[in-house]
Write a structure and sequence with these properties.
CATH class of the largest domain: Alpha Beta
Number of helices: 15
Structural class: alpha/beta
CATH architecture of the largest domain: 3-Layer(aba) Sandwich
Order of helices and strands: HHEHEHEHEHEHHEHEEHEHEHEEHEHEEH
Radius of gyration: 23 Å
Strand order of the largest sheet: 3-4-2-5-6-1-7
Distance between the termini: 47 Å
Number of domains: 2
CATH superfamily of the largest domain: P-loop containing nucleotide triphosphate hydrolases
CATH topology of the largest domain: Rossmann fold
Strand content: 15-25%
C-alpha cells in the first residue's frame, strides 16, 4: 500500500504532472494534493485503469481531470465523463475549465433540462471532453448527434449513485459503443457489488485506491443527533438557525417536504432557496449560485444535492429527515467539512427511528452522540416490542402471519 505523507509535507511536484499544469495549479493556489489526488494522479498519468474510493469532499474531480488534460494535450482522442446528476456535471465542468482551456481543450455539458440546441452547438465544436448524465447522452445517441467512436478516456464519477438512480441500462448502452481500448477511471464514495461487476467486465486490471473505508464519514465533521417528535421539528429547526450564523444546508426526504421547509424558513425571516426535481435546471442553478455567493444563507434540498453540491465553507448540514438509503447519510454530511475545513452535521430522528440511527452508526462505525435542547422536552428512542410467539396445531412456533408466510416461502 502506498504511504501517504502528511498533507502539509507534500506538493504536486513528483506526481508526474507536466510543468505547465503545475504552473497553473500554483496560480490557483493549489499547493498540497489531497490523499486521493496524491495516489490517483500518478497512476492516471501512467495510463492505468483506476477504481478510486474516497469520501466526498476529497478532491476526486481534480484527481481525474489532471491526467485527462495531460493526456489530451499530447494526443488525439476524447474523454467522456458520466455523472449521476446535472449539478455534479456542471461542477465537474467548472473544474475542467480552470485548466483545460490553457491547453486548447474545450468541454461540453450534456444534461437533461438544458437547451438541446445549445448542446448541439457545443457538440458541433468537437469538444475534447464531454461531461454528461447518462439519460441525456443516450438521447443524443438516438438522434445521432454525438459520436463516441474516438473516446479513449472514460470516467465514471459517483458510479454507485448512477446505479442507485436506475441508469444501468443507459450505462450499458453507452459502454457498448465506446472503444474497448481505452483508459477507464471509476471514482465513488462507496463500491457496492453492482459497481464491482461493472469494473470487472469493463476495466483492464484496475488499480484499487482507497483512502478511506467505504462508508466512512469525514473526520473533521462533528456529528450529533436530536431525538425530536415530528411536530416539534420546526421549532428545533428555528432555534438552530438562530444559533448558527454561517451557510446551512438542510436535507428533506421529499420534494414536497423541501417546499414546506423552505416556505417556513422564509416566513421566520431567513434568506433561503430550494433544490429538488420539481425545480427547473435554471432555478436549481440560480439557487446553488445564490447559495455560493451568499445571497441565500440557507439551502434546502432533497438527495438530488447529496453529491452535486461543491461549496467550501458550509458551516452546518441538517438532516431534517433521515435518508431512506442510509448510505446517503455519508454523502449528505460530506457537504460540510470539505477541503480541510471543519464542519458540523445535525440529524433529527423521531422516537420511532432508533433502528435507522443504529443502522447509520453501523455503517460509519461511529456512535452518534445524542444532544438535548434545553428549550424542548426530552425524548427517547422507543424500544422495539419483544417478539411474541404462538404455536400452531403441530406445535410449530411462529411470530405472526407475516413471518409464517416468509417461513413457508423459504420452505418451498
Amino acid at each position: 500500500m502506498t504511504h501517504i505523507p502528511e498533507q502539509s509535507n507534500v506538493s504536486f511536484d513528483g506526481l508526474g504532472i507536466a510543468p505547465k499544469i503545475l504552473e497553473t495549479l500554483d496560480r490557483m493556489r493549489f499547493t498540497h494534493p489531497t490523499p486521493i489526488q496524491y495516489k490517483a494522479i500518478p497512476i492516471g498519468i501512467e495510463g492505468k485503469d483506476i477504481i478510486g474510493v474516497a469520501q466526498t469532499g476529497t478532491g476526486k474531480t481534480l484527481a481525474f481531470a489532471i491526467p485527462v488534460i495531460q493526456h489530451l494535450s499530447q494526443k488525439k482522442g476524447r474523454c467522456l465523463v458520466l455523472t449521476p446528476t446535472r449539478e455534479l456535471a456542471i461542477q465537474v465542468d467548472e473544474s475542467f475549465r480552470k485548466i483545460a482551456p490553457l491547453f486548447g481543450i474545450s468541454t461540453a455539458v450534456i444534461i437533461g433540462g438544458a437547451s438541446m440546441n445549445l448542446q448541439l452547438k457545443a457538440l458541433r465544436n468537437n469538444p475534447k471532453v464531454i461531461i454528461a448524465t447518462p439519460g441525456r447522452l443516450v438521447d443524443h445517441m438516438e438522434r445521432r448527434t454525438v459520436r463516441l467512436h474516438d473516446v479513449d478516456f472514460l470516467v465514471l464519477d459517483e458510479a454507485d449513485r448512477m446505479l442507485d438512480m436506475g441508469f444501468k441500462p443507459q450505462i450499458d448502452r453507452i459502454l457498448k459503443v465506446i472503444p474497448r481500448k481505452r483508459q477507464t477511471m471509476l471514482f465513488s464514495a462507496t463500491i457496492p457489488g453492482d459497481v464491482i461487476a461493472i469494473a470487472a467486465y469493463h476495466m483492464k486490471l484496475p488499480v484499487h485506491i482507497e483512502v478511506a473505508p467505504s462508508g466512512t464519514a469525514p473526520e473533521l465533521i462533528v456529528q450529533e443527533i436530536f431525538i425530536v417528535k415530528k411536530e416539534t421539528k420546526r421549532q428545533l429547526l428555528a432555534k438552530l438557525l438562530y444559533q448558527y450564523h454561517g451557510p446551512v444546508l438542510i436535507f428533506s426526504r421529499t420534494k414536497i417536504g423541501a417546499r414546506k421547509i423552505t416556505r417556513y424558513i422564509r416566513e421566520i425571516g431567513h434568506k433561503v432557496a430550494e433544490i429538488h426535481s420539481d425545480r427547473s435546471l435554471g432555478q436549481r442553478k440560480e439557487a446553488l449560485n445564490g447559495f455560493k455567493n451568499g445571497r441565500y444563507r440557507i439551502l434546502v434540498a432533497t438527495d438530488i444535492a447529496a453529491r452535486g453540491i461543491d461549496v467550501i465553507g458550509i458551516e452546518l448540514v441538517i438532516n431534517y429527515d433521515l435518508p431512506d438509503d442510509i448510505e446517503q447519510y455519508v454523502h449528505r454530511i460530506g457537504r460540510t467539512g470539505r477541503a480541510g475545513h471543519e464542519g458540523r452535521a445535525i440529524s433529527f430522528a423521531t422516537p420511532e427511528q432508533g433502528h435507522e440511527v443504529r443502522s447509520i452508526e453501523k455503517l460509519i462505525k461511529v456512535a452518534l452522540p445524542i444532544t438535548e435542547h434545553p428549550d424542548l422536552p426530552r425524548e427517547n428512542f422507543i424500544q422495539a416490542p419483544k417478539q411474541t410467539y404462538s404455536f400452531g396445531p403441530r406445535g410449530r412456533r411462529g411470530r405472526g402471519r407475516h413471518n409464517l408466510r416468509r417461513t413457508r416461502r423459504r420452505g418451498r
